[in-house]
Amino acid sequence: MRLLLFTCFILIPLAAVLGCDSQADIKPFRFDLGPATLRPSGFFEGVAMFRTASTGDTINTRFGRIPLQDTPSQRLFSAGHSRIQVCGQVGRLRAYVETDFLNAPEKQPYRFRQYWGEYRVGKWRILGGRAWSLLRPNRVGIDSEGGLMNSFVVDPGYHVGLAGVRNRQLRITRDDGNWHLAVSYEAGNSFLAKLAHDTQRLHLEVTALGSVHRRAVSMAAVIHGPNKIDIVSQQVISRGVGPELLNTIPANVNAHSTIQGLEARVRPTWRYSHMEASLTVAGPRATALCDSGPPGSSSTCSSSSPGAQPAFRRSSHNWIGPSGRVATAE
């Protein structure tokens, strides 16, 4: 459907303060400002993209915006995925701000991705602000700054079917050795709970969501195999969570997704991933996924009756090179 060419390079990833994520092979940069210790970080990324169809999107491709009829091709270049982050700590209080330039086209490009504060007391952590939902799976523990199971896909839109978005929330987390438990109240009047367990080779977690109009159960795992190979998996059964899995899915329908992937770190700076995703939607509003096309044309859906179950599958292969994302094939 599309061919992407990404050329990326990193401008001085500035590292971390105590309590903030850092890369082990990068010497931390930090400075003191009164009682606070600050760690600024980020990267610059230039993305060149060619699409065989016009979507109306920036480089942040939304799968549901890909037209079902013929449209002109599209060429884009943007540095919007570049990111600026600041993490700071004062005693037991940690604060984090994360920004990029991928706001909606009709808005100012600069946007805040995350902004939250977290207070630690013994084994307990209390977080408030805009952070990743507990539905977004982790690779290690439960955290919103690092260790998330964001796959090695080349598109800044992340992978279709991957659950969890950034929400305003209040979260309480308890870390007890290899066990982690978190509960949160998030935007949309949703209550969530997550239980995670870590070993040297396995991260396993179960998440439940409940509200008046939304319900979901998610199971996710990351198997840390030999030779720097990871096997990643997430299964979601939901009602009302569909728009997070694919933006064209209407609310108040049943939506189930599964993601299975293999990721390899060929060298410290080279990564490869193969991801398989499938998505099933059912309910009286499922026909909203159908597209009737131009006037006079027939519908692109095989069924338009209530209860129709459009299915979606996607397979992608991605290489990430020494300076970031390089190419994808689908």
What does the model show?
- Helix content is 1%, strand content 51%.
- With 330 residues, it is an all-beta fold.
- It has a single domain, classed as Porin (Beta Barrel), CATH 2.40.160.
- It has a 19-stranded antiparallel β-sheet, with no helix packed on it.
What features would you highlight for this structure?
19-stranded antiparallel beta sheet, 1% helix, Porin, 330 residues, globular, disordered N terminus
Short description:
The chain has 330 residues and is an all-beta fold.
Write the layout of secondary structure elements.
Blueprint: E1 2-8, E2 31-33, E3 36-43, E4 45-51, E5 74-78, E6 83-90, E7 93-100, E8 111-121, E9 124-132, E10 166-176, E11 179-186, E12 190-198, E13 202-210, E14 215-224, E15 229-239, H1 242-245, E16 254-267, E17 270-282, E18 311-321, E19 324-329
Antiparallel strand pairs: 1-4, 1-19, 2-3, 3-6, 4-5, 6-7, 7-8, 8-9, 9-10, 10-11, 11-12, 12-13, 13-14, 14-15, 15-16, 16-17, 17-18, 18-19
Order of helices and strands: EEEEEEEEEEEEEEEHEEEE
Assign an overall shape.
globular
Q: What percent of residues are in strands?
A: over 45%
Task: Compute the average pLDDT.
Answer: 77
The major sheet is characterized as: 19 strands, antiparallel
Unreliable spans are 1-19, 21-25, 287-308, 322-330
Cα separation of the termini: 7 Å
Q: How many structural domains can be distinguished in the coordinates?
A: 1
Rg computed from alpha carbons, rounded to a whole number of angstroms:
20 Å
Described by its quaternary structure, the protein is single chain
CATH architecture: Beta Barrel
